[in-house]
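Teaching assistant here, posting this on the class forum so everyone can see the example we discussed in section. The complex has two components, and the goal was to see what a joint structure prediction looks like when all of them are supplied at once.
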Amino acid sequence: MSIEVVAFDGDDTLWHNESIFSITQEKFQALLQEHAPAEHVYERTLEKERANLALYGYGIKSFTLSMIETAIEVTDGRIEANDIKTLLDLGKSMLTHPTELLDGARRAITDAVANGYRVILVTKGDLFDQESKLARSGLGELFESVEIVSEKDERTYRRLLDEHGVEPHRFVMVGNSLKSDILPVLQIGARAVYVPYHVTWALEHADEPDPGDRWTRIEHLDELPAVLSSWAG
Amino acid sequence: MSIEVVAFDGDDTLWHNESIFSITQEKFQALLQEHAPAEHVYERTLEKERANLALYGYGIKSFTLSMIETAIEVTDGRIEANDIKTLLDLGKSMLTHPTELLDGARRAITDAVANGYRVILVTKGDLFDQESKLARSGLGELFESVEIVSEKDERTYRRLLDEHGVEPHRFVMVGNSLKSDILPVLQIGARAVYVPYHVTWALEHADEPDPGDRWTRIEHLDELPAVLSSWAG
């Protein structure tokens, strides 16, 4: 039976995201260079983000708070308030950064709509950030529905399929994160298309699942229509 | 025609929220007492929150970031990193604060369910905070649906009514904020029950609308069933 719903991830699938975090990380490391080596700052920030995840959730505000906490700890409280102001400014500039679409993003969505699929966005993170990014992306009107969730796990996907009245084998998730977009979707019996981004946040790392007929890996969104029609038969 | 959907606000309608912000504000003012009078700190924080709203949205993480920025400005950059660490800790302690239900909250929901209304939660703010508070409230299972939105305006309410397939005159919003729970709901032709909380965030202040047959004010959630049945006839 053919595919009914095609769900796209947002960050690093339709628009650039992790690259903006990486650039900010570099600026953060440069700010602390008199206090600690770049690699050390990176590791400590990651530890802090991991520790704060259960309290803060995902997103730029969470990252900004974790940077500030890391900066205070790495410098043993010697960082100046004006440098912390710089970190606040880095966070704000991430929040206002233009939403830059990945090559082929709009076409992938419009093709799917034109081919009669119900097309939705399923994106994880801060509600306010994500709505703002979506608005700036110009893609909002293309989706039948937009689902902003705090975590992409099996429970979330089960709920979404239920709400949208779609059976697992007729649902495809398209995304760049094995951990969030591929593994839990396969786990509930649905289908997935993995489109890796050139950089992955360390907390999203996962191994590729065994090859199977319910998921595939593509290198560019332009390959998506062929995958969907291969599953139509 | 009788009411079909009863929607409850969360913060300061079902559980205490603003009181936790107020307590944190007092601690913040005490921390800066050598630098500026309490009233000045309060005013500057409020200005900062207002200025940051379009960028950060609502919630505790936003408030924490605004406190830090205010502290740096009010002290002309002289605040010590360890005091900023204290502000991070204040934010974290807000995030882990137990969700304390208002008197009659659970009963108001179970009564509405027992009387055959479809009962939903419509709460504004940070997705992660709100989900976490709801989980800690123990009320989650009572709602047919939970809607966490970034802003409660006419557009949001129109979308919600549409998604839930309910006509405006059969929808009642119950909440403590005139600005978010009452005025936009009346504006789209739906009904509202205003239950004031003892303290209102300055950015939520609004005047009561003119008396009318589509809204009423109650002093305690226990008065809700009588209002709903008065609208049933």
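For the discussion questions: Strands of chain A lie at 5-8, 118-124, 145-149, 171-175, 191-194, 215-217. Chain A touches chain B through 34 residues (CB under 8 Å). Think about how each of these relates to the inputs above.
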